[in-house]
Design goal:
Elements lengths: L6 H6 L9 H10 L5 H24 L11 H17 L10 H12 L5 H16 L5 H11 L5 H18 L6 H15 L4 H16 L6 H9 L6 H11 L8 H6 L17 H9 L3 H30 L12 H14 L4 H18 L4 H8 L9 H10 L7 H15 L6 H17 L6 H8 L7 H17 L6 H4 L24 H55 L4 H30 L6 H29 L4 H35 L11 H22 L9 H6 L4 H4 L9 H11 L9 H6 L7 H7 L4 H21 L12
Helix pairs in contact: 2-4, 3-4, 4-6, 5-6, 6-8, 7-8, 7-9, 9-10, 10-11, 10-12, 12-17, 14-15, 16-17, 17-19, 18-20, 19-21, 20-21, 21-23, 25-28, 25-29, 26-27, 26-28, 27-28
InterPro entries: ARM-type_fold (IPR016024), Sda1 (IPR027312), SDA1_C (IPR048292), SDA1_N (IPR012977)
Pfam family, one: SDA1_C
Protein name: Protein SDA1
Length: 817
Amino acid sequence: MPSHLGAEALSASGRSSEKLSLPTLQSKMKSDPDGYESELILLYSQFKSSLELFQQQAALNFTSISGIGSDPSVAKDLGDRALILAHVTPFYPNHLADFPKQLAGLLSSASRSLPSGLRCHVAQSLILLSNRQMIDIEETLALFMDLQTLGDKPLRKLAFSHVIHSIKRMNQKHKNDAKNRKLQNIVFAMLQQDDEAKAKRALTTLCELHRRKLWFDDRTANAIATACFHSSPRIMIAALSFLLDYEKIEDDDDSDASSGEDDPNPQAPHVVINKQAIYNAHHKGTVSSKKKKQAKLQRAMRSMKRQQRLSSENVSSNNYSPLNHLKDAQGFVEKLFSRLQTCNERFEVRMMMLKVIARTVGLHRLILLNFYHFIEKYIQPHQRDVTSLLAAAVQACHDMVPPDAVEPLFRKIVNQFVHDRSRPEAIAVGLNVIREICLRMPLLMTEDLLQDLALYKKSHEKAVSIAARSLITLFREVCPALLIKKDRGRPTDPKARPKAYGEVNVSSNVPGVELLQEDDNNDEDISDAERSSSNDSDDDHDNEVDVASDDEENQLYGDITGSEDDELEDDEVAQNEDGNNIIDSDDSDVSDNDDDDDDGKEEEEAEEMEAADEDVNEATNCSSKTKDVDARDSETGGRESKAKKRKLSDFDGQLLAADSSLRALKRLAGVTMGQTSPDSTDGILSNEDFQRIKELKAKKDANDALVKHGLRKGIPSSDQLSTKRVDPAKLEVHVKKKMSKEERLALVRAGREDRGKYQARTSVKQKKTGGLSNRQKERKKNLPMAAKKAKVARSQLEKKKKQQRAGKQFRGRKAWK
């Protein structure tokens, strides 16, 4: 029952003697603060007297089972008056200025000795005052952190949620860095204490604030990382599990503390936005209904955009880890590795420490040479959690580590997992691990070893063959020279090779200018191909024009020589045979020259300079020979058609030789122009060049993004590999695991679902109720017509014989039949 104010107190204040409950008085004081000021003074004095009485009882050390104080009514009255005063404090700031400090002092001095109910009431009153800005969180943070260490589970949950919500409310509009630093100093100091309970609650609070991205800075991440070196094993395990990005610290108490009431990503109702809804919102209904529909659509759009933004943030933060913000990553790794070498914890804890070290080494690309030798002694196929151990070894490999330090570990993986007597599961896991290590450090692979491992592509086990083929595919991109010819396929870059240890590409020009040069080279290749096709068509056209003009010249030349032949008619027969022999020999020479020209066209581009010189020399020789042929033909005459045809063939050979010489000169000019770089002129890039560089860089980034997400084949960069986590399950992909007895039985039962219960054949026969007789079965048979007729005839014959045996008299046929 709620407590009531006494009649004497109300009569002294001038009120009527009616009894008022505390909730009723609270509502009236809120509605009329000035009218109920005397009641406030009376309540405050009663609270002080109850507090003094309770403190006197505590001083006299009256103990009971539930706590201090033999009279529970004193604790109840104190708690009720503390709650009502906390509710009306904003309406009486002058009268109750010292009230929050009194509550905080009571909790800080006697929190462990107070009864559980009174402690919760006082804590609720203090939280109410803090929510109404009557007391600062900076003054009560240490108190609420201490309250979480008590054995009272509801109070611990209440204090934890109040701390989280207060800091969230403080940073809701903007980040208050100065105040956050003060609060962080309080929690950090509590985390460094030797008291396990206080350090654990501080670590839980820091992890929750970091998970909610309220304290998402370097200081919080480093404070959580330093908790790995706490003297308490439980604190160390909790910090390691958080750094390994476990969703929550595996503790029963902490699972109750994280309530789902303050979920930052509530599931909004699904709203369908289609064309019909948009049309109705703008064209159907009255003005007010249109406004309501439009407002509903806008809310739905905002919620959808918010969900998309949150989902994109979650995708982008998948590879995030507090280890990214370590100030001294090398010192952290060395200190944790030294503790790993000397600790005597159970195997799971040591595996967690080893995973954190490996992830930090890979993330920051650190050098910890003793770590690989430490892992080497655990590399055995029968080792417990060997896939997690191998994933940690892969994570710790990067291009900054000397290959000599990792080579013993690499060799042991090959020798222990990949051999003929090993199980197929172990071979598949070993090949996958070798592929992942060579992806980060390709210098570890040798030619003989790669060719031996490539032979496993012919294995009958699917997991082994897939792993071997993936290794071959990797080295087709990284270094095809290590593979045999039939395994190389068609690589994108046949001369590709991995960088030597310590090799760095130093940019000596404008960043991105190499993209511009590659694009220009591609454009030149395309333009050369087009130019060659256009040149071929132009040359064909020129050949037609030249042949036509040469025909006219031949006709004129033939007329002139014809007049001379009339004068020299006497010597025609004697010189005709000699002229024919000369023309035949010249024709053979011209045809040889034509063959040489055709061979010069098919030469390689690498010998273009020499081919051009040879073609020019041949062209001059051919021109001189054709001049001799023309002179001899002018002497012989050329009345006959055979001589004219041979003369035309001579001119065709001359044209082809000249054409080949022109093409050779054009090729020579193209080679000399191609050897000059685009920057050899002035080395100055225009605004258009910078714009092209920007566009080409955007295309390259898009291609890299597709490669990163697996939408396009390619090798990720070292930075992408360092941020990417190695999943142990991917190392044993396509490997069929051995099923347990329960799984096998479940599989057998699943195959028997459609089958009835087993019964013996004799019991099935005995339970048969009946069937069809032979006569009924015969009726169902479809007999041929002949069989039916024979059966009918047989039955009639039997009927006649039966009648004869009966002794009936035959009376003959009737007349009308």
